[in-house]
Amino acid sequence: TIQRTRKQVDGSPNNPNSLQELVIPEKYTKTRKGDDFLFFDSGPGPERIIIFATNKAIDLLSGSDHWYADGTFKTSPLIFGQIYTIHGIKNHEVIPAVYGLLPNQLESTYDNLFAALKAKAPSLNTSNIMTDFELGARNAFRSFFPNSIVRGCFFHFCQAIYRKIKSCNEILE
């Protein structure tokens, strides 16, 4: 398989079966240029959060008036619930800056994510945040970035309407 071949070539570690088993080798905590990339690790436990970001990426977010945030589930490592990314704008391009490996979609998890970001970058702030309509994420953004306007994404709004229409299909027929 691809995974077996990759492991033979670069010595990749085995995939852990739980968040407690996950050990991040030193070489995976830095970028190819040698910059720190592992921004935060809450440590072993069922609610473990790992954040990857460079200081340069945090600076990009600090200088961006607009952030875009969303979670993805299909590409998330099996032991995590989602990969949550926060993007900023530089030279009219949207650039991913923060990658959070999160165990779930609870508001308390987003609180922990943003608390970790603010602890290491206290001045981190923006004017506008666009995200999906997940209540936990929206509430946490409002709590940690109270001067920011949190808006819902039109794409996610349309998806929600489409799902609702499909669920009401029996009524429509």
UniProtKB/TrEMBL annotation:
Residues 67-159 form the MULE transposase domain. Pfam families: MULE. PANTHER family: MULE TRANSPOSASE DOMAIN-CONTAINING PROTEIN, PUTATIVE-RELATED. This is MULE transposase domain-containing protein. It comes from Leptotrombidium deliense.
